[in-house]
Hints:
Elements: E1 19-27, E2 38-46, E3 57-60, E4 67-70, E5 76-80, H1 93-99, H2 115-126, E6 131-136, H3 142-157, E7 161-164, H4 170-180, E8 187-190, H5 200-206, E9 211-213, H6 223-235, E10 240-245, H7 250-261, E11 265-270
Parallel strand pairs: 6-7, 6-10, 7-8, 8-9, 10-11
Antiparallel strand pairs: 1-2, 3-4, 4-5
Helix pairs in contact: 3-4, 6-7
Amino acid sequence: MTSTRLLLLPLLTPTGAATITAASRLSSSPSSSSSSSSSSFSLKVSGPQTLFTRKPWLCGKRHQAIGCLKIEDGNEVQMFGSDDEFGSQLPTQAQTIVEGSGAVLVSEYKPAPDVDYLQELLAIQQQGPRNIGFFGTRNMGFMHQELIEILSYAMVITKNHIFTSGASGTNAAVIRGALRAERPELLTVILPQSLKKQPPESQELLSKVKNVIEKPHNDHLPLIEASRLCNMDIISQVQQVICFAFHDSRLLMETCQEAKNMRKIVTLFYLD
């Protein structure tokens, strides 16, 4: 006895005007020694056909929930089936041309490099002498001044050129340390105004310095404005800035920020 089952498969087309139905007739021979079955499909197409211009037919297997629509030129378009079986499909030639291979869909975000870190690393690798600008507050204890004096001395004996100003406190400690190294050519003091505008104790210390640059054309300016211009002049001549300041030292904070903007290496020591 031959059993017959009819399976109707509605297929949607992009235009919505044409409908395709497939009839599956499954038959098995009683005399067959195996349990396999053969299946055949027939198509009935009604309505206007705008998607396919060649004769289509359905092909499939009974034991797999897979259907495909074949065109006479050999191309296949899969219509339905299990999601597991289509998870690793390769794109068609048309998809590859239009969409690309899809290997890299979104470029990986890479943050911008840390400029300060790269500059410090480059300075470490160079190992050579460089111009260093020292800035700092006038209000400083004796122990802090001794440490700055030792640091300045070490910088000069390693052949670095020191630039600083002529105020008391930090600047005076830097000058004393550099003079101890007995390398007068490696110390340059740039004053915000003329020498006569400096305090008497500063004038006595500056008399021992070989390279002193005065700015008498700034004598008419307030000291804070003349000091700002002097700091900018020092920054323009150095590769690295070392600063000793308090968090509320406005002028020194502005000086360090300006040095960073000019891509200088800035080492800032807070005293509070």
